[in-house]
Amino acid sequence: MQKTVISGNEAVALGVKLAKVQVVAAYPITPQTIIVEKIAEYVESGELKARFINVESEHSAMAACIGAAAGGARVFTATSSQGLLYMSEMVFWAGGARLPVVMAVVNRAIAPPWSIWCDHNDALSQRDSGWVQLWVENVQEALDTVIQAYRIAEDERVMLPVMICLDGFLVSHSYEPIEVPSQQLVDSFLPEKTPAPYWIDVTNPRSYGTIASPETYMEFRYELQEAMEGAKRVVKEVDEDWGRLTGRSYGGLIDLYLCDDAEVVAVLIGSWAGDAKEAADIMRSRGVKAGVLRLRSTRPFPAEDLVEALKDVDAVAVVDRSLSPGLPSILLSEVKAALYEHGAKPYVKGFIAGLGGRDVTPQDFVNVFERTLKGFKKGETGKVEWVGLRGVGSGHR
Amino acid sequence: MVTVKELDRKEHWLPGHSACSGCPASLGLRMLGKALRGNFILVVPACCTTVIQGIYPCTPSQVPLLNIAFAATAATASGLKAALELRGVNVPVVAWAGDGGTVDIGLQSLSGAAERNEDILYICYDNEAYQNTGIQRSGATPYGAWTTTTPLGKRERRKDAPWIVAAHKVPYVATASVAYPLDFVEKVQKAAAKKGFKYIHLHAPCPTGWRFPPSKTIEVGRLAVETGMWILYEIEDGVFKLTGRSKALLDPSKRKPVEEYLKLQGRFSHLLRPEGREALESLKLQIEESWSEVGKLVRGQP
Fold first, then answer.
1. Residue B58's CATH number
2. Which of A48, A130, A318, A397 has the most CB within a 10 Å radius?
3. pTM, rounded to two decimals
4. Domains of chain A as residue ranges with CATH
5. What ipTM was reported for this prediction?
6. For the segment A164-187, what is each residue's pLDDT rounded down to a tens digit?
7. What is the tally of structural domains in chain B?
8. In angstroms, what separates the C-alpha of A70 from chain B's closest C-alpha?
């Protein structure tokens, strides 16, 4: 195993090369562009034996990935924000078609107003598309998760596309020292792509995606749901296998930090888990047992694991880097639903922070822990609070 | 010249499908299957052919068929071809899309694939409106035609898609008509033998949407050509050539009056009434304009 210092985007491209991807179709968008630039270099230099299709839009990028995956190839694309939204029709198509496409989404806020900086609304807008959605914390995990993603997507118990979400700039443009697995190691972990279990074959002609009547459509959707259930087990298995080979695993569906004896736990996705973990350390140095639960997978939503980890916790802070206007908070609702369904009733408070790249520090997470514990002790409602919001209606003008 | 005798006897698009009576798309699919002897893969976006296939788990297609979203045809075909090449499978990928899916919503991905010179054959079967959704106007609907969204007749001219594709300098662009099946078969075979992006724009008179009896699909298609409303040509490696019946029609006196074509179709009935005289004259001028352009190309003028 070799050590190197690279950015999150370069790590994703390296993962694609090590996974021996065969067809890449992509369109540029900040902050994702470096991934596909790097892959284009690999293809041109012959380091990666693949066809790079320079499509004219993200919609076509996913359409080409779907065609190539249906043709039996291992495929990849990457996008961000507006690009993902423009691609959305085909994102749902790939999910419904049960094709093992892998895509990196470098998370970026949605316009207007224009923003190139990080939040999670882009990927979360696609949460009902039938894609496995994995979220990484750092550069090393970005590389490792790309390789894991193909094992998950191509597993016959799953056969679903996989989205790897990495925070724009915070991970995509951050340089970190990482360990690069050897090609031999990756080959032993990820077998060469075979077209099975279904692909387009002229000697065995089939029609794909024909009209399903009301008598059959629901069963297709039920099978999609079953595949997501199956993915829960496979995501864990694959992460454990990777851990045995490399010494690195990420907890499968959830990454727990100091949660065993915790009285207050912050639940979140993405790279700011690092800030939250630092805040948990600060809290513990002050005698408060704080922990962090990072959801590594939002689809499938790891309800059972989450409940198991939170059932003895007094207070839970769910910190969303996204907004569902009128709800208002996506992860908060999903975490609450999981707890309610399983009869666990810790105090839960929601926070919205970091939209459009607003900086969030470990001190902000200290405040989140303190505010949550205070709410719990005073018996307040778990009303959602916005972190670091400036004077609305006057102050920000 | 292909003859009927030489045509593949095997059917690759089976009977029992759900097309309307007299459907030109099913005719086109039948001839396409024969032209390539069933050795190809179809990529089909939302269009009449989505419905013609019937309902899962049945399919009339004897070749692999990948259905895809409306705007995605050419891009999906590009990806599929790339995968087949990697697997060493040398089989033509044929994109088969309607006019709305080609000249409107699918134009961007079509242009992208043409610019990349993807090794696919793209066939637009042009029934001159969104017939599948119930006869709404498309960019390919001709001037003057009634549709449900142009109740008084379309006021704009149709978008000339073959020329848009030709502007991408691809190896092969042709027009064809289901009323001249052997001409179509020949063009499909010629296109399939070429490497790179090939485009055939297939005129497809639709009894349901154009309001004529289902027994008259071929008659209407022939009249479109004989009156000069539809011109058969090909542009091979940049060289323009009239083909088939259209070769003899450069001289306007050889063409039948356009009224013969219009009067068979309910969608043009208003053009033949006194209040439609102005629109009819305008349509005739447009036909002359198109032929005048063709004349320059045939004579090699810029």
1. 3.40.50.970
2. A318
3. 0.97
4. 2-246 (3.40.50.970), 254-386 (3.40.50.920)
5. 0.96
6. 999 999 999 999 999 999 999 999
7. 1
8. 7
